[in-house]
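Troubleshooting entry. Yesterday's outputs looked truncated, so today I'm pasting the complete records for two proteins to confirm everything comes through intact. If either block looks cut off, that's the bug. Protein one:
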Amino acid sequence: MPGEINWDIVIKNWDLPFPHKLKRSPTNPIDQAELDRYPEEEKEREKWWVERMKDPRTDEEISDDNCKKAETILLDAMRKTHEDT
């Protein structure tokens, strides 16, 4: 029962590995492969934020630049499709 959980022990041992491989089940939505991927994904997110913080542009400028890039990619793909037909 939730009231029987010793949260101090849970927090103290939070980063310890599980004693066995995790399997997906109706009560556990994650498996060992997903759990093993988490540190790599976290590093990628941290890298993205570090790079973002170095970027002097405002969010609006970044959004505008991304829209221009997407427009260029889309127009190039449409031209190629049109040439191939």
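Protein two, checking that the full record survives here as well:
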Amino acid sequence: MRFLDPARYEVVPLSISRDGEWQDGRAGRAGPSLPGMLSVIEALQSVDVVFPCLHGRYGEDGTVQGLIELAGVPYVGSGVLASATAMDKEFTKKIVAAEGIAVADSVVLRAGETEVSTSDRVRLGLPVFVKPARGGSSVGVSRVDDWADLDGAIAAAREWDSKVLVEAAVPGREIDIGLLQQPGGRVIAGPPLEINVGAGSQFFDFEAKYQAGAAEFVIPAGLDPVDAGLLTRTARRVFEALGCAGLLRADFFLTRVGSRTVPVLNEVNTMPGLTELSQFPRIWQAVGISYSGLLDHLLNTALAGR
């Protein structure tokens, strides 16, 4: 809100408390509660465009997008189906794999399932990463280097989701691609960002993502131009395959398969992190688009029509 030009925007802030209560108020303090969904829809209908700056379940997964659709107001980001699909790592993998895009091998454990068969363990190898299927910010994610620790990792992931992925580790460089859709519909890509995690973290976990200095972002990543082009084209294919709109951050592992360099999709974020430490704003800052300019771009694209 601080970076929205007050000469251009009249901001109507809505927030949701931890117990699910919608509130109308200014940044930094809670306002009066909105009594029921009808009042929420009326509040949404009072504006020209909505910026649903929410991450994870009940914000990035199509639920709030559906509410805004009912209100009939333009909004920033992907629609209901793309948001829901991209939030579910199982279905993201299935859709992009059908388009010929590489993904990490994995096993899906649905509610009540706790066993990874011997044959699957052999196929996946160690280490594996255990993660909630519909989560974000690496919450509930564990690295498992010994199968004896698998049950505990599954239990930790199940605290956040009934469906869990057990995923093979992919050796390679961790590269993010940020995409922006322009008002005319064309999708542009920012410079590749490489994540280098500090010695205190085994992987890019919650602490590494949100503690200053815990990870280093290199923008642009030191890539061969051919590899950089391959990553950018693959990210655009992911955007199209999932039916995204507005923006997307696609996270890859750049690995070697024989003599070929292959981008393996790790996950996507239809509303990527937007803190001052986050990758997406920093990607665009590297090419001269300020944070305010990025917000303007996203709102202009939403107003131009979905």
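Both blocks look complete. Sanity check on protein two: The longest strand covers residues 247-257.
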